[in-house]
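Weekly structure sync, notes
Attendees: PL, DS, HV (note-taker this week)

Item 1: G-protein coupled receptors family 1 profile domain-containing protein
DS walked through the input record. Source organism listed as Mytilus coruscus. Sequence as pasted into the shared doc:
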Amino acid sequence: MVLLNSASIGGHSFDDKSLECIWDRMATYSYTVVFSVCLVWIPLIVVGMSYLRLFFYVRNKRKQVVSRENAPNIDNKSLRLAKTIFIAYAIFSTCWMPFAMLLVADADDTFPHEVHLFITVFAHLHPSINWLIYYYTNGNFKAGFHKIFRICSRRYKTQHDGQVSQSGTTTTRVINIKSVPSED
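Item 1 (cont.): predicted structure, written out as tokens:
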């Protein structure tokens, strides 16, 4: 995007509607349309068709190996992976398509500030959702997440057991230890 700005195509400025420093979508409308088509729509269509082909490939292979004993387990893993990838793609598409449509639809810059801001924030939301997709579709990810959460919880609890007193730059930790009578 910025390379085209360097070639005097379009511009780069602060967009008062989406509240971000970005290419000037109103400087050259054709540039905005090309951006929307080349950097959003074409990749979404190509990736969508690729995932669809992958899904049909896995489904057909699954039908071919149903008679084998160990194959369905391996194939189920492939199907779950294809499902996870497709869900991530669907979330990405759902987040970015409104942004691409807004760029083209608001040719006269008449849409309200709130619409631009909401759709821009929504477009950038997809990375925040990815971990949830993996959590609910991948057992290994879920187990790893719980393991990390338990480790962090233990560390937090260990750090906050006992009393802590601070004086100046020195921190003193008082740990309450129960005395156990010795068997001597």
